[in-house]
Amino acid sequence: xxxxxxxxxxxxxxxxxxxxxxxxxxxxxxxxxxxxxxxxxxxxxxxxxxxxxxxxxxxxxxxxxxxxxxxxxxxxxxxxxxxxxxxxxxxxxxxxxxxxxxxxxxxxxxxxxxxxxxxxxxxxxxxxxxxxxxxxxxxxxxxxxxxxxxxxxxxxxxxxxxxxxxxxxxxxxxxxxxxxxxxxxxxxxxxxxxxxxxxxxxxxxxx
Length: 207
Prior knowledge:
CATH superfamily: SGNH hydrolase
């Protein structure tokens, strides 16, 4: 009986550790700047954040704004790579009183064949600079199944090593579902709503 109890306790411990590491939301982790005094949630990204393929009223940042009590700023630019994003980080993010910044980049780096290591370095630099300003950070993984799977582990590692929130596979079930897309890659209104729900689940306990 004692042996069975020990095994059960060990299983429970492993389960909760698994949740904390892979789900980004099953167990609340301590993150950097949890006491941030910023006023806004800033969605910092490329066309997925911008809302390519839908009306301005159907973007994921606007859907997210309906789920939270803080103002949400859409700082997405269609076609942005992580390198281009770094150039506008100061003006489009750091000067806007961020409480939480949701980083979503990598798709255009992948399409334009930006060296993988450069993209990872850029994401890491964004996290460090945003945290230095006093804001919380969430890193969004836009891999889906086999697509961009090589980005998944490094993004997660950046988040966990730097005390940031990790949002896993934001685009899962959207890329492969024509009913969720407006074109080959970009979501439609239903897809963006799903993204907003996934983002909200990951960040809600920190707001």
